[in-house]
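ok new one. same drill as before - structure tokens go in, u give me an amino acid for every spot. 362 of them this time. try not to just spam alanines like last time pls lmao
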């Protein structure tokens, strides 16, 4: 290989993606600076080593590189995993393999063009639930009315028929009526979720909202669940939509209870939180945030389930709609707040709701 033109050398060194030249035997001959940064190792570690060291355990990729070396075939954007030796971690990459043609126009190896896809993948994961939300908006609004109208006729007719039929047939119609009501409730929640949220702002006492919910829940789950509340008495009143926030905490408390089928402890905690990261610097109150935590000693959430918590219709429950958390997130985000879920399978879940004391545009 002759001495490279200095401009080309600089271009190769400046590219932020990895460029790796490999020999006919499949060992690494050259690599640009970005390769070292991407794989977090100096070139001494991988020069003259098989290319497979950077992408271990991926026979399909190896076969494609082999095919390029043997037959001069190019492959575009193969998905793979790069390996960082120092931390024994992997990261997603997209690789293009081209035959390397020497000055005599002869194939003499292969060039790998490696792109780190970590950020792209993260962005895709973050935006996925939101894509689903916006699709859901259009879809559900259209569908909901189509379903709701016949549903009214179905349950209306069932009620009428129930009155006319002898009692031994009632139980069948009760199922029709009960299930129609369930579908109706689900559609209402979906519509609620799909419509833009207009908040009805007022000054609210979050403790009062929590107590109202807990009072009801305590009555229905007396035996199995221990309820504990640890409130910060100095917590200020906040600006928010009381009914919507009640919906949020009701969803979260119900989730916590449903996660403890064999009983357990449900703790509700409140405290003051100074959020230095909040955007507005103008009004000192706008930087103040309260934190409400719903803590259960239930089943916990697996890492796989955790990824989809806020995706509409994602549920692990036979009777669940998978709308509680996405709807809660929507309401909290409309209040410029955030929800954080911390959980370990087997040792319960802690859901944190951060809410600013004052709304931005108030
Ligand atoms: N406190 C919790 N402990 C364990 N798993 C939870 C908890 N909260 C939520 N989850 C998991 O997140 C999933 C989604 O919750 P979400 O509230 O959105 O829907 P759902 O409870 O299944 O149904 P819905 O609330 O619509 O009746 C649940 O099915 C459950 O797997
Ligand atoms: Mg729920």
């Amino acid at each position: 290989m002759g001495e490279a033109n200095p401009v080309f050398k600089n271009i190769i060194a400046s590219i932020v993606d990895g460029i790796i030249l490999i020999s006919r035997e499949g060992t690494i001959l050259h690599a640009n600076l970005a390769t070292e940064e991407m794989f977090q190792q100096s070139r001494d570690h991988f020069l003259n080593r098989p290319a497979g060291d950077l992408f271990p355990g991926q026979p399909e990729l190896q076969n494609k590189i082999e095919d390029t070396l043997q037959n001069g075939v190019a492959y575009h954007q193969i998905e793979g995993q790069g390996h960082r030796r120092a931390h024994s971690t992997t990261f997603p990459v997209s690789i293009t393999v081209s035959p390397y043609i020497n000055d005599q126009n002869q194939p003499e190896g292969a060039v790998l063009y490696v792109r780190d896809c970590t950020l792209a993948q993260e962005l895709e994961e973050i935006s996925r639930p939101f894509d689903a939300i916006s699709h859901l908006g259009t879809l559900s609004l259209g569908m909901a009315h189509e379903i709701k109208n016949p549903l009214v006729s179905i349950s209306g007719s069932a009620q009428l028929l129930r009155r006319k039929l002898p009692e031994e047939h009632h139980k069948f119609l009760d199922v029709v009526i009960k299930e129609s009501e369930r579908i109706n409730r689900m559609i209402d929640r979906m519509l609620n979720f799909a419509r833009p949220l207009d908040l009805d702002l007022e000054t609210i006492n979050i403790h009062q909202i929590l107590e109202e919910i807990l009072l009801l829940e305590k009555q229905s789950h007396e035996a199995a669940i221990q309820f504990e509340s640890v409130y910060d008495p100095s917590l200020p009143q906040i600006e928010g939509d009381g009914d919507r926030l009640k919906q949020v905490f009701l969803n979260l408390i119900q989730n916590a209870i449903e996660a403890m089928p064999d009983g357990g402890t449900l703790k509700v905690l409140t405290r003051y939180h100074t959020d230095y990261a909040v955007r507005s610097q103008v009004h000192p109150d706008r930087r103040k945030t309260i934190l409400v935590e719903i803590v259960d000693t239930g089943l916990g959430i697996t890492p796989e389930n955790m990824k989809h918590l806020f995706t509409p219709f994602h549920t692990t429950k036979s009777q669940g709609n998978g709308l509680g958390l996405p709807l809660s997130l929507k309401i909290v985000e409309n209040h410029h707040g955030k929800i954080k879920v911390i959980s370990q399978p087997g040792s319960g879940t802690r859901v944190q709701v951060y809410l600013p004391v004052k709304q931005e545009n108030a």
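The domain at 6-116 is CATH 3.30.450.20 (Beta-Lactamase). and btw The CA atoms of residues 206 and 242 lie 8 Å apart.
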